[in-house]
Write a structure and sequence with these properties.
The protein is an alpha/beta fold. Helix content is 23%, strand content 23%. The strands form five sheets. A nine-stranded mixed β-sheet has the order 10-7-5-3-2-1-19-20-21, covered by helices on one side. The chain has a six-stranded mixed β-sheet with strand order 11-12-13-14-15-18, with no helix packed on it. Strands 4-6 form a two-stranded parallel ribbon. It binds zinc ion (ZN).
Length: 354
């Protein structure tokens, strides 16, 4: 049978489309669960991401990759609840493809030392923001790391992030991060927060946005007008269009200095994850109730999960707030499930409670 030229063209177009499938359209089996563990480290962020392993080495997908974002405040092994959590669940020969530090503040990077000390780490990512001698010491440990007999690969600064290969089934994008033009970005700790690496992961139809401590306003500003990192993300059409996500790891521990209304509308998350503890900042604990209320008002169906779950009622202090309020997210690319613990016991989010 002779094909009409139009039909032939259609066949060719179909064939070439199949060869150039974008990486996030790789078929994901229903059992291929990607896990994201938001570990209770008290005040701070500590995130461990584990991709599914199909047991077939070298096929470029489903290779059981391990990635961390931050590690919490405790650098010494004895008090490092991030390290403890990973050691209880990972095989001893686990290799970390990426250790990422969102920004060099004390509630984010020190806990990553545990991963560097006890596991091979192949790649390190940060915003190349200097922050004194303690962080320099940490970087010394990073630079001495070896993976598979080779020196660790350093990806420092936004321009050097590249396109991480954590398997063709997982799309990773850096939407924002240092170095940044400091104009209008505040000073001191605010400027460092605003240089946080903002990372989006997409797995099938499900997506996950990690904000670090990027800010959107001053505490006393009204929430309608974004400033700082949120303003930049929203003013760029590419990053603005990429904000929509299934799960949002809320910025800056749920502080009133983040989550402006236009930002909430753009992300429009189904699930909100808050990593925080019982550290008082000028008498204020994070998250701010007003911040969470904005998400509940935007979407009363939203589910909020917190690593400081029940900590106030339990009388926890900054010394005792890493009490097993872990959040385990899993997705097979079609749906997302969240299992939350409070003091190591299962806990269900039933309604939007700010
Ligand atoms: Zn922080």
């Amino acid at each position: 049978m002779r094909l009409a030229p139009a039909a032939l063209l259609l066949l060719l177009a179909t064939a070439s489309a199949a060869q150039t499938l974008p990486r996030d359209t790789v078929a994901i089996p229903d059992t291929a669960w990607l896990e994201i563990h938001i570990v209770d480290v008290g005040q701070g962020d500590a995130i461990w991401i584990r991709t599914w392993d199909d047991g077939v080495p070298g096929n470029g997908r489903f290779d059981g990759r391990n990635i961390t974002i931050d590690g919490g405040p405790n650098g010494s092994d004895g008090s490092n609840s991030f390290l403890k959590y990973i050691r209880e669940r990972a095989r001893p020969d686990t290799r970390f493809d990426a250790v990422i530090v969102s920004h060099p503040h004390d509630d984010h990077y020190p806990g990553a030392l545990g991963v560097l000390r006890h596991y091979e780490v192949c790649n390190y990512y940060d915003g190349d923001t200097p922050n004194g001698s303690r962080f320099n010491q940490f970087l010394g440990t990073v630079r001495a790391e070896r993976c598979n007999g080779q020196p660790i690969q350093l990806h420092r600064g936004r321009a050097n992030f590249g396109t991480p290969d954590w398997g063709s089934e997982l799309r990773a994008e850096l939407l924002w991060g240092a170095p940044i033009d400091p104009t209008g970005m505040g000073s001191g700790g605010t400027l460092i927060n605003n240089g946080s690496l903002v990372i989006k992961l997409t797995y099938g139809t499900q997506s996950f946005l990690f904000m670090g401590d990027a800010e959107g306003k001053e505490r006393d500003d009204p929430p309608g007008t974004p400033r700082y990192a949120e303003a930049r993300l929203l003013s760029d059409s590419v990053t603005e269009s990429r904000l929509k996500s299934t799960v949002l790891k809320i910025a800056h521990h749920g502080s009133e200095t983040s989550s402006t209304l236009p930002f909430i509308r753009a992300v429009d998350p189904e699930f909100l994850v808050v990593s925080s503890g019982r550290e008082a900042y000028s008498g204020t604990f994070l998250p701010d109730r007003s911040t969470l209320q904005r998400y509940c008002t935007h979407n009363p169906q939203i589910r909020i999960y917190r690593t400081d779950q029940n900590d106030a009622a339990e009388g926890r202090s900054a010394a005792t707030d890493n009490d097993g309020d872990h959040i385990v997210i899993r997705t097979n690319g079609k749906r997302t499930e969240i299992r939350a613990l409070s003091a190591d016991q299962p806990w269900m989010a039933s309604a939007c409670i700010p």
